[in-house]
Amino acid sequence: MPDIPAYKNEELSFEERAKDLVSRMTLEEKVSQMIYNSPAIPRLGIPSYNWWNEALHGVARAGTATMFPQAIGLAATFDENLVYKVAEVISTEARAKFHEFQRKNDHGIYKGLTFWSPNINIFRDPRWGRGQETYGEDPYLTGRLGVAFIKGIQGNDEKYLKAAACAKHFAVHSGPESERHSFNAVVSKKDLRETYLSAFSECVKEAKVEAVMGAYNRVNGEPCCGSETLLKKILREEWGFKGHVVSDCWAICDFHQHHKVTDSPHESAALALKNGCDLNCGNTYPKLLLAYKEGLITEEMIDEAVTRLMVTRMKLGLFDDPSKVPYTSIPFEVCDCDEHRKLALEASKKSLVLLKNQNNILPLDRNKIKSIAVIGPNADSISVLKGNYYGTASRYITVLEGIHEAVNERTRVYYAEGCHLYKDKVQGLAEPKDRFAEAISAAERADVVIMCLGLDPGIEGEEGDASNEYSNGDKKDLNLPGLQQELLEAVHAVGKPVILVLLSGSALAVSWADENIPAIIQAWYPGAEGGRAVAGLIFGDFCPSGKLPVTFYRTTEELPDFRDYSMKNRTYRYMQNEALYPFGYGLSYTKFEYGEIKISSDRINAGDNIECTVTVKNAGNWEAEETVQLYLRDVEASVEVPRWQLRGVRKVTLKPGEEKEASFLLTPKDMSLIDNDGKRILEPGVFEVFIGGSQPDKRSLALTGTPVKKAEFEV
Q1: What is d(CA 272, CA 263) in angstroms, rounded to the nearest whole number?
Q2: What's the CA gap between 58 and 44, in Å, rounded?
Q3: pLDDT category, 1, cuts 50, 70, 90?
Q4: What's the pTM?
Q5: What's the pLDDT score for residue 290?
Q6: Which of 624, 654, 68 lies closest to 354 in space, CA to CA?
Q7: For the segment 558-579, what is each residue's pLDDT rounded down to a tens digit?
Q8: Concatenated DSSP letters for 72-88?
Q9: Mind listing the pLDDT tens digit for each residue in 375-401?
C-alpha cells in the first residue's frame, strides 16, 4: 500500500488527522478556512465548503424540503420523541440534498451539512420577534427539546455525524432586535445560570452538540462572540465543550463598529479568536493575518481553531471513502416524500392549542353545516404556514384550503379577506376598511364563521428579515395589528358563532376575544400541512393535545421593560399577575382524571433521587393524548426561587375509560437551586410536587376545571 499522508488515513482519530492536515497548510490557507465560505485548497484535496446552513423546522433556503411547524409550534407539542423524529427527517433530507448537490458540483450557501439550529434562547418577553424560533419561555422544556432536536440532527452512528447541529445564540439573547448589534444585556449571576445558560449546558453536556453560535449582543460588557467568560471559562473549561464556535453573521465587526470595545477590524478578529471563536460568519477574519503580524495572536491559536473546524468536516465524513460513511446512500427521492409529509401533518396537529371551547362548540359536525364563512387576512396566507428560516414545500395547505377539503361537498364555503394584516386597507387606491362589507356579507350567510387572525413573519421576526411599520421585527405591543380587532368585533356583531384561529409565533393579548368569542385555537406557524391540521381539529378528526410553551399575558402594560434582562415578573416562573392563558395550558375534547401522587419516600437524604407516580384516566369519550406535567416548588429556599418550575413531562395516550401510570424521577439537580452567586446548591427543606395537565395556578384551574394533584417531601 503506498504511503498516504496521515490526514487521509481513516484508521487514525479525526483529531490526529485534522492536526496533520492543518500542519500542511500555509498561514494564509489556514485563515481562509476560518470564514463561513471556505475556499478549496486543491493541493491538499480540500474541496470548498460553505458552513452556513439553516434547519430550524425543515431544511431551509435550499429548495424543496418537508416543512414542519415553526419551532414554537413544535414546543407546544411538549413532545421530545416527536421533536427527535422531526429532526431525524430533517437530517435525512439534508444528507439526500447535500450528496445530490455535490454530484452537481454545487457547494453554495445553504448546501452544506452544518446546520445553525436549534435556537435555544429563552423567550423571556412576548414582544421579541425571534421568539418564534425558540422552544418557549421555560429552561427545562427548552433543554429537553433542544437535546432531542440535536440528537435527531446528529444521528447515532458511533463514528460519523449525520449532520452537525449548532446551539444558538450563546447567550442571554432575546431582543430588542433593533439594538442587537450594540446592546449590552446586563444579567445577574443567578439569572444567568438559572434561566439563560441552563438549556445550553444540557445541549453541550448531554447532546454533545457539535457547534455553538455566539450572540450579537454584549453580556455584562463582553461581546458574546469574544467573551472570555462565556466562551472560554464556561463553555470550554467548565462544560468541556469540544466542538467549534461560530460567530453570528457579521457579529465580529460589531466589536469595533457598535460595541466600541476594539478600535479596528484586526483587533476585533484577535479578540474573537483569543477567546475561542473558530469560525467567522462574516468578513472580519481575513484581518487575522494583520493581527498575527502585529503580534496580537499566535499561529498556535489559529492552528487550534482550524483543527477544530477540520475535525467537524471529518466527522461528517467529508474526507473519507463515501462507501464507509453510513449516510451517503440516502436517495434524493426521500425529500418531501409522503412519509415525511405525514409526520409534518402529525406535528402540526399536535402543535395546535385549544384555548377556549365554550359549551363544547367544537368540534363542529360537518353533516349539520350547510354554509361556513372563512374570514381574515391569515385564512389563505401561505406565509403564515412558513414562519421564518423556512424551506420550500411542494404544496401548501392554507386554512381556507383545509376547510374546503374537510367540509361535505354540499356545504358552501364563503371566503373574505376582511382586512389587511396591518394596514387600513387591502387595495392601495381603496377607502379604508375596503374588505369589511364583504366579510359581514359572508358572515350573514353562514351557519358558522372561522376567523383567521394574528401575525405573520413579515411583522415578527429577525431584524432585516421582518421590516414594516411595526419596527425591526419586534412587536410594539401584544394587540392584534391593524384593523383585525375591529373586524373581529364587527363579524361577531352579526350574531353567528365564531371560531377564532390565531396564527402567530408569539402570544397575543386577546382579552376581548376571551370574553366574547366561544372558541379560540392557537395555531402558531403550523407548516405546509397546517391548514389541514386546523380543519381536522375544528371538525373533530382528532383530539387537541397542544400546550402553551409561553404565557399569554392580558396586557402589554404589565410587562417589564423590554431591555431589562432580570427575570423578575417574567414568565410563569416569576410573574406576579394572573395570566390570560398560562404556560402549560391547553384544552382537550375529553376529560382526564388524576389519582393521588404516590411518592417513593416523604423524607430523603440530600443526594438521593425520589420517584413520583400518578394514575391518569381518560374520563371522556375521545381517544386522546394527555401532556402530564410535574412542577416542583422549593418551599423553604434561602434565596428567591421560581414560584414553581417544570421538572418533568410525560405524554400518555388513552382510549376512553383507560387509565395508565405516569412516573417521574426527580434527581438532586432537579431539587437544587441557583444562589445569588450563580452557584448550584441543594438545601435541606420541604418540597411540593404538583402533577396534572397544567400548572398549579388558580387561572389554570379556572380554565380547565381539573385540579392539579399535590404531594410533599423533605430533603
Answers
A1: 14
A2: 34
A3: low
A4: 0.98
A5: 98
A6: 624
A7: 999 999 999 999 999 999 999 9
A8: HHHHTTT-HHHHHHHHH
A9: 999 999 999 999 999 999 999 999 999
Q: Give the span between the Cα atoms of 285 and 291, in whole angstroms.
A: 10
**Which amino acid appears at position 388 of this protein?**
N
Question: In 3D, which of 162, 106, 107, 208 has the Cα closest to residue 325?
Answer: 162
Burial class (CB in 10 A: 0-12, 13-18, 19+), 516: middle
Q: How far apart are the first and last CA of the chain?
A: 65
d(CA 624, CA 653): 6
Half-sphere exposure of 323 (CA within 13 A, CB side): 0
Q: Which alpha helices (DSSP H) does 281-359 contain, by range?
A: 288-293, 299-315, 338-351
Checking if the pLDDT of 470 tops 80, the result is no
**Residues with catalytic function:** 248, 460
Question: 442-456 burial by CB neighbour count: b if 16+ within 10 A, else e?
Answer: bbeebebbbbbbbbb
Whether the predicted pLDDT of 471 surpasses 70: no
Catalogue all structural domains in the chain, each as residue range(s) with its CATH number.
Answer: 6-328 (3.20.20.300), 338-548 (3.40.50.1700), 592-714 (2.60.40.10)
- Residues 473-479 have a mean pLDDT of 94
- 589 vs 591: CA distance, rounded Å: 7
Distance, in Å, from the CA atom of 150 to the CA atom of 153, rounded to the nearest integer, reads 5
Beta bridge partners of 519: 357, 499
Mean pLDDT across 199-214: 98
Cα distance between residue 533 and residue 519, in whole Å: 16
Which is nearest to 143 in space by CA: 74, 198, 70?
198
Give me the sign of the Cα torsion angle 571, 645, 197, 504: negative
